[in-house]
Amino acid sequence: MDSGASPWGEIQLEALARDELVYAMNEGWATLSEGVGYALCWIGLRAWDRDFAFSVRDESAVPVSDGASAEVARDQALCRSLGDSVLRRFEAVLRQYGVSVNDRRYMQTTQPVSARLVLARISYGDGLYYFEMRRAGGMHAIAVQREGDRYHLFDCHYGHFRIAGLRNFAVLLDRFMRQADYGRVYDKGTFVAGAGAVARWRVLEDVATAAATPIPAPVESRDDQTIRAVVSAR
Prior knowledge:
Largest sheet: 7 strands, antiparallel
Order of helices and strands: HEHEEHHEHEEEEHHEHH
Number of helices: 9
Distance between the termini: 88 Å
């Protein structure tokens, strides 16, 4: 799809009908490896329960992305400056968002991306997952968030999808991979990296700290002390 054109294709329309679409992207097909910057920026935002801005633009009352944020260009430029090390790029970009990387979730394989590969990796637990796909002369990336029984899928070519239940997500993912045809296009291997969501555990940590903090006893004012003294004298 061309930038500025309608974002609606088969993938978005089917997700919209199934109530799985958060918003469609209207950025056009990212040139070269810009999909890497989009995916990393989305992970950095989602770690803090944020997202790309989106709005309803026409009478169809459906959400469409408002466009790339300044962070996308920044993150993409940083990736280019760091060369081909996926984990190094992942760590450097997410450091800007204050998000820690889980080294144990890093993986490199010669297999092309697939629904089965994605499901196997996110089985490690809640968090945000980055999938970088390679082909001769290019790359692209998608991202997945798992939070309990809720799952999110992001691709700058199509948008942000959300669904509840692992089985439902597996169906969505399989349909998405078949329609996007990434397994055929990006046939030179897949890199996977993972990070934790910050916002959720920060909130829980703040709640725990507040619960553990003793409540100070109320301090009597001078007027209260005077009244008590008068009553005692009587």
